[in-house]
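Exam revision sheet. Question 4 asks you to relate a sequence to its structure. Input first:
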Amino acid sequence: MAQRVRALALYSALLRASRGMPTFSRRGFVRKAAREGFDKNLNESDAAKIESLLQYGETMLETVQVQATHLSSRFARETTPPPARPVRGLARLKQQVSQKAAGAPIAPANSDVRDG
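Answer key, structure tokens:
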């Protein structure tokens, strides 16, 4: 009975650890691998074999936790906003109209936009 409780706790820990993976596909891979591993050995009755499988699962748990930490730092999103895009088209026209109404000088057009 103690092995059953330990196996369920290990399975839960693997699923929790999968949440730390940075991408959906990696989370799915960890969940699928855990599910398949536990389903494959569901009917195992040899105590020594079960103990070996539990030790292997604990090693895999540690690996997933390390990978989640490492990959999350590698896939971390930038905290700075992207650079502002130049104003073009209708937005530029609206900006010019509002500047003219406010009496502000109108900024020259972007060099990459041609009149035409």
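Marking note for examiners. The mean pLDDT is 83.
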